[in-house]
Amino acid sequence: MTNLPKRRIGVSTTLFLLIMAAILTTGRSFAQSSAFPAFLVKAAVTHANSVFPETQKAPEHKFSSEDAESAYQEARILYRRKAYDEALRTIKEALKIDPENEDYVILRDAIRGATLPEEADEEADKEKEADQTKEKPAEQKPPKKAPKGKGAKRKPGEVKTANIAGVLVRFHWCPPGEFMMGGSKEEGYSGETQHKVTLTKGFWIAETETTQGLWQAVMGEVPGKYEGASYPVYETSWYDCQDFIDVLNKQCAPKGCKFALPTEAQWEYACRAGTTTPFSFGNQLNGDKANCDGDQPYGTKIRGPYLDKRTPVGSYEPNPWGLYDMHGNVQEWCEDYFNDYPAEDVVDPICMTGSRKVARGGDYYNSASLCRSAARSYSMPNSSHNSSGFRLVIVEASK
Q: pTM of this prediction?
């Protein structure tokens, strides 16, 4: 990124300072709300337009409302994950200003220790009220008898960030452990025979589904229509995912490790995150806690929202290990071929024979039942559709 020369304080800068001063005097901390105010980014974009007019022959520094909205969406998601520095970096890149520039310093301080205006106060109060009426959290149980070994002492959900083609991707730790894979008798779906699985090795799994922004940075043009950097990539076949992963492993695989698709067992283990209920957040779903067809709810007769479209990753609350969109939005390819589950206990399972590949998690136009932790789907590895996506894992490389 090319740094731009500093400028003297002029009318536009003074206006921006006044905006920031107004923000800083309203008396409420950002930390008190997950809302990342759109006005902050849009005010900064407006200011950037005045600082870098077209007369300076720098059209790349003009920002349309679409650019402002894209920057806002990305920063909002990062802010909700408490990735404050990444949110700042997103804004800095959108504004194309030197981090030493006085305007950026003001914006940085506003985000880190600033306050929300009255309209954001009202939104935060609504969120707080909604939180108080939420159902009892899903029962969580720690992984049973976690095998001792490398990484066993790390805490579930521990975060590390990987720089992939200039895009910062957050991964969460899933420790070695045991869990009951498949649906319970109460759920009552065929093909989901419940059985005990032991995973002897921990792994890192991406916080979100692979985004269009990451795919574009690595591969160039996205498979489907480009919707925005924070939207999940879609219309990817299983083979497309393998091509993407091959590029990553050649360019930036961590030492002693490799990128991969999760095995079906790894995927469900990460999705459940220690829970035993149909969803990582409880027994019910009607489109309120995940992007699915809320007209076909599960565990309740109350119908909920049906958006009929993909949403930016991280638009809903994460599971107990910090993973977003494990239920709904787009289906996620797994490494395995689809086959019947074994009746007996298994260790580090992966199905390597068959014709169809496993996809998990359900999608935005599936009924809530198809978005359960245990729900299974499959497709031919060369097929792709408008809800086929994937999520990366980092695993120990074979010796």
A: 0.67
